[in-house]
Design a protein that fits this description.
Layout (H helix, E strand, L loop, with lengths): L2 H22 L14 H5 L17 H7 L2 E5 L3 E6 L4 E11 L7 E5 L8 E9 L14 E3 L3 E2 L5 E6 L4 E9 L4 E10 L5 E11 L14 E6 L2 E6 H6 L2 E5 L2 E6 L3 E6 L6 E7 L3 E7 L3 E3 L3 E13 L2 H10 L15 H18 L2 H15 L1 H16 L1 H10 L4 H15 L8 H19 L42 H16 L6 H18 L4 H23 L8
Parallel strand pairs: 1-7
Antiparallel strand pairs: 1-2, 2-3, 3-4, 5-11, 6-8, 8-9, 9-10, 10-20, 11-18, 11-19, 12-13, 12-15, 14-17, 15-16, 16-20, 17-18
Length: 559
Amino acid sequence: MDSKNVIAAIALSSAVIVLYSLFFVPEKSNTNQSLTEKKKIEQNTDTPTLDQKEPLVQISREEALKQNERVQFENKSIIGSISLKGAAIDDLTFKNYNTSLENNEKVILLGPRNVENGYLIESGFVTSDKNINIPDSNTTWSLIGNTKLTEKTPIKLSWSNNQGITFEKEISLDDKYLFTIKQSVSNSTNKKYDFYSYGQIIRNKIPEISNFYILHEGLIATLDDELIEEDYDDIQEKKFTRTSKKGWLGIGDKYWITSLIPSKNKEFKTTFDYKKKFRANFIATEPLELVAKSKVEEKLQIIVAAKRVDIIDSYAQTLNIDKFDLVIDWGFLYFITKPLFFAIDYFFKLLGNYGLAIIAVTICIRLAFFPLANFSFRSMAKMKALQPEMVRLKELHKDDKMKLQQEMMALYKKEKVNPMSGCLPILVQIPVFFALYKVLFVTIEMRQMPFYGWIHDLSERDPTSLFNLFGLLPYDVPSFLVIGAWPVAMGVSMWIQQKLNPAPTDAMQAKIFMFFPLFLTVILAPFPSGLVIYWTVNNILTMAQQVFIMKRTTVKTVT
């Protein structure tokens, strides 16, 4: 590969990386508020259930759960409770997910408001009539009927304000992660009132996040077909407000989502803000008119889920939730990333191991691009065969660069060699590499999935290290020296593959290329082991194809 090819390859790689980073940085959404919104609706956006001045009492989670009466809920996926004070869903644990491979402690997502990591969901009605008492975060609701919420037994909560108005909530739960709340207001008086339904998610503090630019963690929504992604620090600086006619909103972590889905075909205003606590809130912009001796009702759906692709996609389809599948951050390479996940998942179901599934997908990718790679390798094989002639021309015309270029181009034309064709495999591999990295990084299906031997989690780095002979020597090494067996195998395969390519005629270029496998080994060592396995197997398949092509390729050059 000559200098032009090298420069082109490096430039191409850099350009893809730069574009990738640019596309993965979420665009700041337009926060301009509609000027046509009614003034009285604006006044009702600060719902009474969130007291922003409420002091944060530093008590344990266990103590906080004992402070109020609760209704327990449970199905095969989640377990937790609803506080009768405020009717808040503020206690939820995922039954099927452990915090780490080392222990059986389950992942806890939601928590009461008066603990440090408070994270809860509230809903209800507000009104423009300041003389009407409405339930807030300090209201204690009464439980009617069933005493436990399950997929077969819904519960009913009720509260009356002694002004002739009764508020009720009927809460049901499916067998996975969906809460459905039918909330109503009954009027036994002869007066007329207007009520606006709302829902909100409150989070006391920023959780521990990956803080990596390819993954969004924070406040998220799709409003009128537009994806909105706001980081925690963005909301601390500036409130986001948008009125829309369809969509959903929530707060997303790497593997978990807490979301609200307002009633269909009704306009609502979404607000993301921070006043000592983060809040994702929606409120209806059109009132429900509660006339004398009548009742109004509104439905709210809440999904607090592990981001399993099949479950998220199923909710998006069956509940007709607009673009709900985007709670999983597939990125701008969505058209590659998601199909790649489905391919890996398909082979996982066949082979029973995600590591083997990644290898199977690697083989399929090599087969798909076999003709393109063949074209590239034939050209590279000819380039390697032309090396002696190229060296001779450089010696012959070392004092005349123009003449040397002319002779080189004539040689390429004569032998029908394209020096730029070596870039084609890079074009193919870089998008797939990024997409696979994304799949391993964001999908919970890959979380804590083992391969064989020492790889217990394909989404994490290879835990072994060359510097203690992969665990044979009895001492630990610093994290920056954790260069595992798979990264070393990848580096070795890359070095061997490099030997099959045309060597640069320039001595400095040759030294740089000799260093390149070592450089990539160090760079890729912290990457998910599943990605390194893909790259290693891909190198081996590439070498096999390259050797086969080179043995069948010859050129005749007159010296």
